[in-house]
Amino acid sequence: MFCKKVFISFIVMLLSIMFSTSGFAQDFDEDFSIPSNKIEKQAYEKYILNKENKDYRYTKNTVIDEDTTIDGNVIVTDGDLTVKGEIDGDVLVILGNIYIKTDAVINGCVTSINGRIYQNEKSAVSGNQIETKVKNLFSRHEWDRDFDVHDEDFKSWDYKYIPKDYRRSYSTLPLGKWDDPFLIRYNRVQGLFLGMAIPKKIRGKYNYFSPHGFGGYSFEEKCWRYELGVDRWLFNQKDFRFEIGGKFYDLTDTKDNWLITPTENSLAAFFIHEDFQDFYRRNGYELHISQNLSIFLKSTLAYRNDKYESVEKNIDWALFGGDKKFAGNPAIDDGYMRSIYGELYLDTRNNKDLPVRGWYGKISVETSNSKLNSDFSFNQYIFELRRYQTFGRYERIDMRFKAGSSAGNLPLQKTYKIGGISTLRGFDYKEFSGNRMLLANFEYNISPKIFTSNFLFFDGIRYVTFLDLGAAWFTNNLADKNEWTAKGHEGFSHLKWNDIKCDFGVALTSSSGRCRLSIAKRTDTGMDPIVITFRLSKPF
User: Fold this and answer.
1) Do the domain assignments include residue 185?
2) Which of 90, 110, 137 is the last residue of a domain?
């Protein structure tokens, strides 16, 4: 009952904020992730003409009273400026509005970056009045290189001169697997893994084949692991590109990258004796075609021919942890899986790793049965939708809803597991599993800069409150049915509020959101202790 009341209250608050501040969000969310000092430096060089004058710098909302005269330039950051007196110099306001009141006098130019200028008829301004955006302070090359923000004029990019990296240049392309050509991994199955990667690229306005993949050596498994693929783009690459391709591979694979990144998991395993990913061997090949339906929407159809094998834990060493040992790596259902996979992928996020605005959505279906000469017989359905909604520069709500279902007999490596990091943060890791899953996460993210004075710790720290709800379960009465007598929509009707697990908590994050310290508490019992977690990536 408590969980239900908390959930309803949170949704009411969320809708109220969205409707009441939607107009304000449009003014400021475009440049949310750019450091203020970099903006100020660029704006000062461009719009302060009288650089010989003394500079008066202010932060937050500032008022120049009627009986005040300032002999110099006035620069205000992260707040509004109200002028009632006189300023003998230029005025620059960054991320705020300028209000020039009755009888106010400004002997210089007035510039507002990402704000508006409101001037009373009986005031006087001798110089130019300029309203502009942060984006206009930077060249296109510098903007794309440093800030990685969607460009509304994307179609005008010239691919002929600058090769564009696959994972950055096109919004609908799936998340890149590699941030660096060098691969270093550490986990309880492979031990140390070292390799090299070749990411996909888009090279020019002409049609190209694109080879991609990686190769490396797993020291504890004492074998090579690799993935090699090639894709051929047809038609217009920038707009509605059609792609055909394939790849073959031999992987120590995991389905847990949506819970924790390989890099963060490697650091946890190496330093603190915690491996959060489960592994299995998967080797085979894939053939696929895909069509970009718009610059944000992509569909994919693939045929997969895989052999799945269980793998065992090979090491127990970590730098810290003393006599602590890694948990065993769970077994899977071994066998040959031949399947057809379909996916519809939507992505308007401004940043793949640390998004602050935009939509992410994916619907996927995978089918495997005896007609494909497969050892497995199942259908799997997964739906996920995320929204990152900013309300000005200092507030944001992140939301995720994910659901999974299946028909037939779902193999162990395809079952849903939630609990702990990135899912139900107040519960044990992978505490719940099943062939059905529901998950909802809500985060309210705020910067102390929204207040008129310094609040608690440093301005670079952001504060987060969150609520998680979810459940995973097996439909026992359906699991015994073979082939398609069990339908994917069955197994949800019995669900009640008491079956939904709930937790809430608070977190401190860096300004980018990459580093996070969170405290979570489950609501179904008052006995269990709180869960404290330190992360190096966003939970979703």
Assistant:
1) yes
2) 137
Buried b (16+ CB within 10 A) or exposed e, 404-429: bbbbbbbbebbbbbbbbbbbbbbbeb
Q: How many CB atoms lie within 10 A of CB 368?
A: 24
**pLDDT confidence of residue 160:** 35
Q: Within a domain: residue 427?
A: no
Facing residues of 438 across strands? Answer: 403, 471
Domain count of the fold of the chain: 2
Instruction: State whether 102 and 169 are in the same domain.
Output: no
Whether residues 194 and 321 share a domain: the answer is yes
| 58-66 contacts at long range (C-beta below 8 A, 24 or more positions apart) | 60/449, 60/452, 60/453, 61/96, 61/452, 64/104, 66/103
Q: Do 167 and 312 belong to one domain?
A: yes
From 137, 165, 187, the end of a domain falls on 137
Note whether 133 and 158 are same-domain residues: no
**Cβ contact 112:119 at 8 Å:** no
Question: Do residues 228 and 259 share a domain?
Answer: yes
pLDDT tens sequence across 501-514: 999 999 999 888 88
Listed range (112-126, 194-208, 234-248, 526-540) with the worst mean pLDDT:
194-208
pLDDT tier, 398 (very low <50, low <70, confident <90, very high otherwise): very high
**What digits encode the pLDDT tens for the residues 456-468?**
556 678 999 999 9
Residue 298 scores a pLDDT above 70: yes
Q: In what order do the strands lie in the sheet with 98-100?
A: 62-64, 81-83, 98-100, 117-119
- Tell me if 108 is assigned to some domain: yes
Task: Provide, rounded to the nearest whole percent, the portion of the chain with pLDDT above 70.
Answer: 80
On whether residue 225 sits in a domain, the answer given is yes
Residue 537 near residue 261 (C-beta atoms within 8 A): yes
Domain membership of residue 170 as a residue range: 154-332
**283 close to 251: Cβ distance less than 8 angstroms:** yes
| Same-domain check for residues 177 and 315 | yes
Q: What CA–CA distances, in Å, run from 215 to 31, 181, 196, 251, 269?
A: 38, 11, 6, 10, 22
At 316-364, the pLDDT tens digits run 999 988 888 999 999 999 999 999 999 999 998 888 888 888 999 999 9
Whether residues 118 and 255 share a domain: the answer is no
This prediction's pTM:
0.70
Contacts of 329 (CB under 8 A, 6+ apart): 188, 189, 278, 279, 310, 311, 312, 313
Rounded mean pLDDT, 259-287: 95
